[in-house]
Amino acid sequence: xxxxxxxxxxxxxxxxxxxxxxxxxxxxxxxxxxxxxxxxxxxxxxxxxxxxxxxxxxxxxxxxxxxxxxxxxxxxxxxxxxxxxxxxxxxxxxxxxxxxxxxxxxxxxxxxxxxxxxxxxxxxxxxxxxxxxxxxxxxxxxxxxxxx
Length: 148
What we know:
CATH class: Mainly Alpha
Structural class: alpha+beta
Helix content: 55-70%
Oligomer: single chain
Mean pLDDT: 89
Largest sheet: 2 strands, antiparallel
Number of strands: 4
Distance between the termini: 27 Å
Strand order of the largest sheet: 1-2
CATH architecture: Orthogonal Bundle
Low-confidence stretches: none
CATH topology: Helix Hairpins
Order of helices and strands: HEEEEH
Shape: rod-shaped
Number of domains: 1
């Protein structure tokens, strides 16, 4: 939070109200970042599992698998030779790719996801610092106001 040189001229009660507003705003942003962190972590773990599956594609040849075509429905299926994979590329589009191309695409998605996660963690840490600063300032102001 940028230091305001006019803080000395602001009424302590008004400054306290402004700090409460900032605290509320930053707390909402913090919660939003935490939700995004959880979502991106789940998505990145799913991508990682897909990469592991594609890495061992030859080992699942001629295996039986349990698949879920829809929520709550499971069916047993046999995997033949894996020549291609249908990959979701976004905006509702599915693209057929070779196993290696699908794996490379998923690895690229994983790298992008990890970059987003690192940015979210950085933003979360900045907000934590700002919230600590605001809470400290509010405590000091509260003491001043109770002493008046």
